[in-house]
3-isopropylmalate dehydrogenase (Sulfitobacter noctilucicola), 363 residues
Amino acid sequence: MANPTLLILAGDGIGPEVMNEVTRIIDWFGEKRDLKFDVEHDLVGGAAYDAHGTPLHDDTMARALEADAVLLGAVGGPKYDDLDFSLKPERGLLRLRKEMDLFSNLRPAQCFDALADFSSLKPELVAGLDIMIVRELTSGVYFGEPRGIFEEGNERVGVNTQRYTESEIDRVARSAFELARKRNNKVCSMEKANVMESGILWREVVQKVHDEDYPDVELSHMYADNGAMQLVRAPKQFDVIVTDNLFGDILSDCAAMLTGSLGMLPSASLGAPNADGRPKAMYEPVHGSAPDITGQGKANPIACILSFAMALRYSFDHGDEATRLEKAVEKVLADGARTADLMGPEGGTPISTTEMGDVILAA
Ligand code: ATP
Ligand code: MG
């Protein structure tokens, strides 16, 4: 049988730096575990704009649709701030998500014991924390029409539209309930049904999907602002959180700080299953291109490495190998390996991106 294909889009800023460590790990799995992938590399974001004048070339889009999974680094940077909206690096990412129809974004927030002290919360609030935020990714205010800056009377008005159809809510709710069944059978849905029509529909549809097909899963509803508060007050009350595109963006960054650093957080974006049952999928670290530390060897590669672990688990049915990789990360952290972003106030000497890759490979 042919090897599964992995399309690597390293992107901009620290994207190529952290992806370099992942490439070494992919090679390791090929050599030591006989787990071989056909790896292809292509451009996205500012890197694609520099080469082709567009943040995502049509050929790259076609390759992404063909690949068994896409691994993405990060896009964007100050160099591209003045570009027209349609040419911005982020548009490349949004196009990938949209055309691959990756409607369900899985963002785990898991606290490694060795980093519990480093959380923005008290260690006892986060020790053992393991929550999964499921963020709707292809609709909502990021895509709703009308959008734009319009003339209105003698001034301009900036407009975005929050819009959800029943089917969009239905499918992301299902993915959250399916996930909950593989975890602890508990889902909390977040919206703002008190002030938003889309929130009223969201709550109604999630409840209906639950009552009809997932009555065994414990479901609660929460306003997203309260959810943000609860996340920093008592995060362990949650298991799976399902929410819309914008609230999910904010809540998952908030959850990020519970676990220590943005540099630790992987994500998966899944679409509908293909004919072979494998969902279209893209894996990427939650963090951005981090222009402030680009090119200095300071970036923490763990978020990107754990994203590859998620690919092993969700796209390739190698949960055991994913666990192997996650255990290696856990071990090096327990042994005290720290990139600069993981240094506590007591200080110490951080290791570089490549050195972190080295110790994880050794483990
Ligand atoms: P974007 O708009 O692309 O999401 P952002 O403004 O949210 O970008 P990030 O690029 O994610 O910002 O960076 C936020 C902060 O976190 C920066 O100070 C950055 O240096 C730090 N950071 C992000 N990723 C990492 C990483 N992998 N290792 C170390 N520090 C990181
Ligand atoms: Mg961001």
Summary: The chain has a mean pLDDT of 94. The CA atoms of residues 5 and 91 lie 24 Å apart. Residues 288 surround magnesium ion (ligand 2) (CB under 6 Å). The chain has twelve helices and twelve strands.
